[in-house]
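Hi support team,

I've been running sequence recovery on a batch of backbones for a student project. Most finish fine, but this one hangs at about 90% for roughly twenty minutes before it completes. I'm not sure whether the input is malformed or the queue is just slow. I've pasted the structure tokens below so you can try to reproduce it. Let me know if you need the job ID as well.

Thanks,
M.K.
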């Protein structure tokens, strides 16, 4: 994007405002140009992000990267034929050229009965500021200090930590603008900061590594560099002496850092694109029992400052609170306007993804924390790392490399590595036994650790 402010020092709302105003002007110009060319409809989106990332390794600064990304995308409709084009240059001439190219494509594209803007009645008119932006120190000196303190503390935490894959601090902020020929024009600012580190520990001739991180929109909510370092060091040292286990079937706990991924697979299985393509194992499951009765999933897109908060989706549709699952029963699919038309339904405001899911459990299936969940399990595998992408949403088959800890008598006995866990998502959803209440707040899907009754474990 042309003519942006410097990315050093404190970045505030006031500093971003001129760039946002230029972006809004460019979107308005694109929509006006499309109308002038005789388009039946048009929509335009612009996302911009800027910030910096600093990486250190062995207490030396390894990389300092400044980032500025932003482009305008315009879609022009002629009836139900459409064409799209984009530009990172927001000058008046460049925007006009992008509109002309999109219009030219629309003239040659075959009509699709389901294409077009989302319904006008669904637009997010009168939305409130989602409060996603917080001023942040984006100076390289500050970022380097955070990463260096984190790595130095990590390396000094335990004599068995002999190396480092580094520490990383990043701070990014930006905005999103969306408008269409319904007359809707919406925008909001956002920011995000993070700090992570990855130590390497050695015992004998075996080496292990793990990591820890903190992430928040508000810099004041980040954990301290020392706290991140201590967490990473403890997690890494705990993995020393890891070994495989014999092939078996056993209960499995997905640690809270991973459990959100299971529900992410569920979100994919009920998304409109997979549904109308008939490429999901949850086809025609609306209103059916998917999870146990003690489990529900609630979505709230309007939480101020939430990591997955958004007042409108990528089509301008107003987002709203809704129950995704109630007492284990699937209440809704996740639909864009195109998918909704394909299925003869209405958009649910999920163009661009899901918004702040809260996975909720009822007593007595809700345990206080991971330790209590291990005691409930008694004997089985606590999974703290997953590898590979062995998930098939068409069949629900699930097979991934895993590492973690073997549990007996409700207590961790030894670290485990080089195993594969396998099952089917349909069975995994129904065979959830309990969940812990120590929710991980760093994801758009918030849940505790999850205990499954049984999975196949392939080991030595």
């Amino acid at each position: 994007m042309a003519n942006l402010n410097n990315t050093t020092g404190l970045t505030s709302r006031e500093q971003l405002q001129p760039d946002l105003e230029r972006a809004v002007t460019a979107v308005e110009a694109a929509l006006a140009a499309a109308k002038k060319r005789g388009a039946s409809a048009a929509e335009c989106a612009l996302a911009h992000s800027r910030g910096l990332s600093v990486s250190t390794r062995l207490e030396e600064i390894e990389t300092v990267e400044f980032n500025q990304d932003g482009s305008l995308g315009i879609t022009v409709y002629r009836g139900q034929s459409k064409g799209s084009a984009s530009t990172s240059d927001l000058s008046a001439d460049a925007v006009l050229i992008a509109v002309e190219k999109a219009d030219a494509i629309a003239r040659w594209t075959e009509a699709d009965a389901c294409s077009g803007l989302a319904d006008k009645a669904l637009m997010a008119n009168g939305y409130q500021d989602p409060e996603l932006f917080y001023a942040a120190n984006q100076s390289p000196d500050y970022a380097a200090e955070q990463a260096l303190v984190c790595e130095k503390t990590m390396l000094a935490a335990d004599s068995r930590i002999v190396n480092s894959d580094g520490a990383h601090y990043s701070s990014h902020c930006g905005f999103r603008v969306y408008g269409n020929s319904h007359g809707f024009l919406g925008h909001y600012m956002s920011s995000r900061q993070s700090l992570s580190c990855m130590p390497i520990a050695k015992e004998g001739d075996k080496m292990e590594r793990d990591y820890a991180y903190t992430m928040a929109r508000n810099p004041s909510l980040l954990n301290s560099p020392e706290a991140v370092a201590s967490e990473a060091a403890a997690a890494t040292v705990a993995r020393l002496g890891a070994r495989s286990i014999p092939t078996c079937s056993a209960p499995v706990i997905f640690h809270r850092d991973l459990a959100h991924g299971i529900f992410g697979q569920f979100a994919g299985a009920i998304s409109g694109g997979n549904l109308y393509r008939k490429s999901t194992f949850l086809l025609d499951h609306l209103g059916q029992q998917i999870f146990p009765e003690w489990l529900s999933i609630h979505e709230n897109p309007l939480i101020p400052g939430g990591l997955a908060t958004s007042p409108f989706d990528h089509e301008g549709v107003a987002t709203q609170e809704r129950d995704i699952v109630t007492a284990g029963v699937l209440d809704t699919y996740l639909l864009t306007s195109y998918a909704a038309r394909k299925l003869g339904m209405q958009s649910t405001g999920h163009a661009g993804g899901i918004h702040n899911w809260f996975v909720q459990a009822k007593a007595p299936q809700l345990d206080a924390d991971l330790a209590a969940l291990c005691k409930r399990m008694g004997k089985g595998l606590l999974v703290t790392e997953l590898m590979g992408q062995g998930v098939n949403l068409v069949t629900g088959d699930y097979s991934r490399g895993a590492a973690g800890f073997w549990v007996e008598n409700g207590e961790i006995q030894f670290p485990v590595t080089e195993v594969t866990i396998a099952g089917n998502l349909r069975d995994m959803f129904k065979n959830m036994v309990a969940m812990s209440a120590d929710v991980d707040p760093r994801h758009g899907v918030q849940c505790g650790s999850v205990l499954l009754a049984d999975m196949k474990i392939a080991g030595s």
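--
Follow-up from support: It reproduced on our side and the slowdown came from queue contention, not your input. Residues 248-458 form one domain. No action needed from you.
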